[in-house]
């Protein structure tokens, strides 16, 4: 898609000494198991094509071993590809020399890690200011920016403490402040909240969405948790065995799973809590309505509004404009997961 902040094209990663030779075999039909058993190479990524739009959160998810962490590490070339392109603002990252690559990592992309990766011998403020220290910024600027972003993530007044004096959730807030202090257009977040307790994890998700509404970063977020993915994603990419199984609007994927793998992923989701009214809205046809509902309200709230009455019809409003209607009968259908036949038909 034109205008993508990050465009991944025909990306392959095969682990082993003859990876480029093995790409040709994979393109010829050699599967992951055959590649390992008969050629002693591991298929990491297979023909990945994804566009990541500016100012959006792209969530890449899949089970352990699906290739999601391998993929995100290609964006800043922590891992070298076997074939393909990674374009950032139209420039192929894979063709950058050492100096250009270093500049990309310092000025264009910042990263938030699962294990926080804070320096234990440096204060919270010094950790938050680390990207600016690496960039050679003056000390006064480092102090101001660190304090600003620590304040923004709810850690104002903690700058003189050390990481060991903070809880896990607070340490991850420092990690986010550090990434924001780098002032990069792109933030890479690899399982950033996976090590946190559920309640703290929810708080961090809310914080990220709050910051995103203000800052409009291009965020690439890795997770294995579908609830987290559906909450955060503007664009959802689901991997299995190193290949993209389905990608697109998360609401559309939930309502239209592409294959049994995706169906298994979404089968246990609380659809009423996750699905938004806009996802089941249809053009206005009714002559009479029982009220109005916001497009981004979840179906759970609409069920409460209607008292479970399936005969009701509501106008759907988005930013003050009527964009359609929602029939409670359609809501009931949306709550029932679609099941594919043995031939793959719904």
What this model shows, in words?
This protein has 346 residues and is α/β, with parallel strands linked by helices. It is 38% helix and 22% strand. The protein has 15 helices and 13 strands. The strands form 3 sheets. A 6-stranded mixed sheet has the order 6-7-8-3-9-10, with helices on both faces. Helix 7 (139-152) packs across helix 8 (168-181). The chain is globular and about 65 Å long. The mean pLDDT is 91.
Q: Helix/strand/pairing class, anyone?
A: alpha/beta
Task: Please tell me what the overall shape is.
Answer: globular
Average pLDDT metric: 91
Helix run count? 15
- Specify the biggest β-sheet: 6 strands, mixed
* CATH-level-4 superfamily name of the largest domain: P-loop containing nucleotide triphosphate hydrolases
Task: Please state roughly what percent of the residues sit in beta strands, choosing from under 5%, 5-15%, 15-25%, 25-35%, 35-45% or over 45%.
Answer: 15-25%
Looking at the overall shape, the CATH architecture of the largest domain is 3-Layer(aba) Sandwich
CATH topology-level fold name of the largest domain = Rossmann fold
State the distance separating the first and last CA atoms: 29 Å
Identify the CATH class of the largest domain. Alpha Beta
Order of helices and strands: EHHEEHEEHEHHHHEHEHEEHHHEHEEH
Strand order of the largest sheet: 6-7-8-3-9-10
Total domain modules: 2
Which percent bin holds the helix content? 25-40%
Radius of gyration: 23 Å
Q: In terms of per-residue confidence, which ranges show pLDDT below 50 for 5 or more consecutive residues?
A: none
How many DSSP E strands?
Answer: 13
